[in-house]
Every structure is written in C-alpha cells, then in structure tokens.
Amino acid sequence: DAANQANDGIQRVTQAGNTGDPGGLDPNDLKSIAEKAYAAARQFNYRGEYFANNPVLRKYSDEIIVHHSIPLEVLKKRPGLFTSSELNAATNLRGIPTQLNNTLHLSEIHGQLWDNFWLENPNATRAEILEFAQKLEDRFNLQNLLYEYLNITK
Q1: CA neighbor of 24 nearest in space, from 33, 32, 14
Q2: What is the pLDDT of residue 154?
Q3: Cβ distance 96 to 145 under 8 Å?
Q4: Within 13 Å, how many C-alpha atoms sit on residue 4's CB side?
Q5: Which of 38, 50, 81, 117 can pair with 66 through a Cys bridge, CB separation 3.0 to 4.6 Å?
Q6: How big is the CA angle at 7 (ends 123 and 92), to the nearest 5 degrees?
Q7: SS3 string of 96-139?
Q8: d(CA 95, CA 74)
C-alpha cells in the first residue's frame, strides 16, 4: 500500500534513523516521501482499529475521539524513525472523551506539550520520542482516562 511504499522509500534513503544524511537523496525528495507517508497514514482507519481492539468501548463511540500517542506528524518531522504501521497500531492509539478533546488533547497535549517538545528537540531520536510519549501517558493516565471518565471497567 501507499504507506508501506513511502516507508520503504524513507528507509532506503536514511541510515540508522539519521535524516541528517539522506544517503545522497535531495532533501526535497526526502520531504516529499515523508509527506506521502504521512498522507497515507492519515487515510488508515485508525478509529476502526482502536474500537476493534477495545470492543467494550464501541457503544460509547460517539463520545470518543481517537488520537495517536506518538502523533503521525513524526513521519514528517523525523522521517524513518517510525513506520505508519507502528503509529496506527492499536498500542499507539488512545481514546479521549469528546468533552476533553479540545482542552486536554488539542490544546494541552498536542498544542503545547508536543509542540514544545519539537521546538526543543528538532532532531529527537526514536528513544527520546518514545520517552516523551511515555511521560505524557503517565502524566495524564491516557490508557485509563477514558475508562475512568466514562466510569466503565476494561
């Protein structure tokens, strides 16, 4: 599929996750490949993936916004460190109550914390990105937030 083709292209032109040396590829070509990987990843039905792996939440689907623990934008910001398959896997997806989406996710987590992370770490490694995502998980209890908010058990 398109996501895998884009990921394969990125893997061929990056060496050990170092996008500072695109293996002789024009940086504009690398950017184009990364944009294609991002666009393909956005097309994936990650909401369906989330609910397929969290069947107890299906009846609450109108009250849930599905987001990525490690945002898809990592495909553009740090090409080659993650694949779209990894990012769209159920283990990277989080349900946020619709009532908290604007304030918690869009403003605080994505709009402030991830934005600041990228400003402070423009060349973040895979390990640094994973560590930061885990800090957010722990700080906001993201894996259990939805269950607690809706007052249901897993």
Answers
A1: 14
A2: 77
A3: yes
A4: 1
A5: 50
A6: 70
A7: EEHHHHHHHHHHHHHHHHHHHHHHHCCCCCHHHHHHHHHHHHHH
A8: 19
Taking residues 147-152, what's their average pLDDT?
91
Q: State how beta strands 64-68 and 93-97 pair.
A: antiparallel
The owner of tokens 């599905």 is 66
Q: What digits encode the pLDDT tens for the residues 88-100?
A: 999 999 999 999 9
What are the tens digits of pLDDT across the range 2-21? Answer: 555 555 555 544 444 444 54
Asked if 80 contacts 10 with a C-beta cutoff of 8 angstroms, the reply is yes
Return the exposure string of 14-39: e unless at least 16 CB atoms fall within 10 Å of the residue's CB, then b: beeeebeebeebeeeebeebbebbbb
Total Cβ atoms within 10 A of residue 76: 15
Is pLDDT of 22 > 70?
no
